[in-house]
Design brief:
Layout (H helix, E strand, L loop, with lengths): L1 E5 L4 H12 L3 E6 L7 H10 L4 H4 L5 E3 L6 E5 L5 H11 L3 E4 L8 H4 L1 H21 L4 E7 L23 H20 L3 E6 L2 E2 L8 H10 L4 E3 L6 E2 L2 E2 H13 L8 E6 L5 E2 H12 L5 E3 L15 H7 L7 H17 L2
Parallel strand pairs: 1-2, 1-5, 2-4, 5-6, 6-7, 7-12, 8-11, 9-14
Antiparallel strand pairs: 3-4, 10-13
The site of nicotinamide-adenine-dinucleotide has 27 residues, from helix 1, helix 6 and strand 6.
Length: about 350
């Protein structure tokens, strides 16, 4: 299959590209390489995919991977409609997987505009490109944050998600509504995947696992919000990538044009237990700075993944201890020993 992966220099997009290539697919990766977090990490991920920094830095330059001829990277902004249309016109993608977005709940409090540009305008451009080219399936990233302050657990796709508590969540819910419209009007098959706190090697430096690992390794206190009374459905990256791959590869015939699925680990882990596992893997105790709840944050997430199990035989099977060990091994290798 020929697949467009947007956000290919990002955490999930990088892993997904690597996995799709290993399965023999042809992948075109795009990313604007924004500096929301350290760009060196984004370039290092691209290097793993065989794309050198000096090539990746140049906007609109198409670079073929030095390690896999089936991978090509182009730096561009989703907001750049003309360039995006041009790419669709020349590449004839079968499937589009839109992972590019301005992520992060807390950042959206200070920087609302960038969320509207990347997540709304950018997503509209993706939809328009899919509409005007014969795309067999659009798979896109939504988020567990659409559940807002939902108290009923585990979170089900049937739950009402009309009460987002951050602009980030509002843009993700908007994406689901926009996709519905395009599926309905233009018969484009779409799948929204609500990711739940993904962690693992090459993870995001704005998320708790790296923030914690970095602070603990450098003898700094870790910030523990809501006095540690938080629970997350932490999902290991390989389980996520396996689930996304299954959705990309299977025809939508049996399940209908428009679908939304939770993609999590089907479990909720206490934040303090997560920290304990990290302490064990790092061989070091954390100093915890207990803080109140942050604006826009939610106390607990837990995914019901029955829909994905039924339609795609999804089975997340990485234990927390294995996942954290893998993550810490990478963290030490990338940040401490390199
Ligand atoms: N990681 C998680 O736990 C998690 C949870 C819920 C939802 N998600 C969603 O999954 C997707 C991937 O997340 P991630 O963790 O890999 O994030 P990430 O920030 O590592 O990757 C996103 C990539 O998109 C790129 N990008 C942002 N705006 C762009 C634009 N306008 N044009 C082109 N490229 C742009 C960024 O440079 C970045 O490399 C995002 O849509 C995110 O909202 C992630």
């Amino acid at each position: 299959m020929k697949i467009l992966v947007t956000g290919a220099a990002g955490f999930i997009g990088f892993h997904l590209s690597e996995r799709l290539l290993a399965e023999g697919h042809t992948v075109v990766g795009v990313d604007n390489i924004n500096d929301y977090y350290d760009v060196n990490l984004k370039y290092a991920r691209l290097k793993e995919l065989g794309i050198g920094r000096e090539d990746a830095e140049v906007f609109y330059k198409e670079t073929i991977s030095s390690i896999n001829r089936n991978f090509k990277f182009v730096r561009l902004n989703l907001e750049d409609k003309e360039e995006l249309f041009q790419l669709f016109a020349t590449e004839n993608f079968e499937v589009v997987c839109n992972l590019a977005a301005q992520a992060g709940v807390r950042y959206s409090i200070e920087n609302p505009n960038v969320y509207i540009q990347s997540n709304i305008v950018g997503f509209l451009n993706i939809l328009e490109c899919c509409r005007h080219h014969e795309i067999k399936h659009l798979v896109y990233a939504s988020s567990s944050s659409v559940y807002g302050m939902n108290k009923k657990v585990p979170f089900s796709e049937e739950d009402i998600v009309d009460n987002p508590v951050s602009l980030y969540a509002a843009t993700k819910k908007s994406n689901e509504l926009m996709a519905h419209t395009y599926s309905h009007l233009y018969k484009i098959p779409t799948t929204g995947l609500r990711f739940f706190t993904v962690y693992g090697p090459w993870g995001r430096p704005d998320m708790a696992p790296i923030l914690f690992a970095d602070a603990i390794s450098n003898n700094r206190p870790i910030k523990v919000f809501n006095n540690g009374d938080m629970e997350r459905d932490f999902t290991y990256i390989d389980d996520i990538v396996e689930g996304v791959k299954r959705v990309i590869e299977k025809s939508v015939e049996e399940r209908g044009l428009y679908k939304i699925y939770n993609i999590g680990n089907n479990d909720s882990v206490k934040l303090l237990d997560f920290i304990t596992q990290m302490e064990t893997s790092l061989g070091k105790e954390a100093t915890k700075e207990m803080l109140p709840m942050q604006m826009g944050d939610v106390k607990k997430t837990w995914a019901n993944v029955d829909g994905l199990i039924k339609d795609y035989n999804y089975s997340p099977n990485t234990s927390l201890s294995t996942g954290i060990k893998e993550f810490i091994n990478w963290f030490k290798d990338f940040y401490i020993e390199s």
